[in-house]
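Everyone, carefully examine this protein record:
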Amino acid sequence: MGMGNLQRMAMQMQQDMARVQAELETATVEGSAGGGAVRVTMTGKQELVGLVIDPAAVDPDDVEMLQDLVMSAVNEALRASQDMATERMGAVTAGLRIPGLG
């Protein structure tokens, strides 16, 4: 494999990675808890962009339960976002483990 081919492949990989990173900024996943009483929307870049709490889940005498539901929904969305990023970056890097990219 010539040096020109290697450089061309590296440039293509950089372009593909930039495209996937841009896609991850707008792609969203959702996490939920309590049968959907708490729903969280997160981007592929792990940015929280939405939080919906069903009013029925709000019990002033049990705030701890609501806190647990929110944490569960956020963690579920975070895992889904990380999985999506790993999957999409893996398609670009063909399974190479590049630190900081998945």
Remarks:
- The mean pLDDT is 88.
- The longest strand covers residues 28-33.
- Helices lie at 3-26, 63-93.
- The longest helix spans residues 63-93.
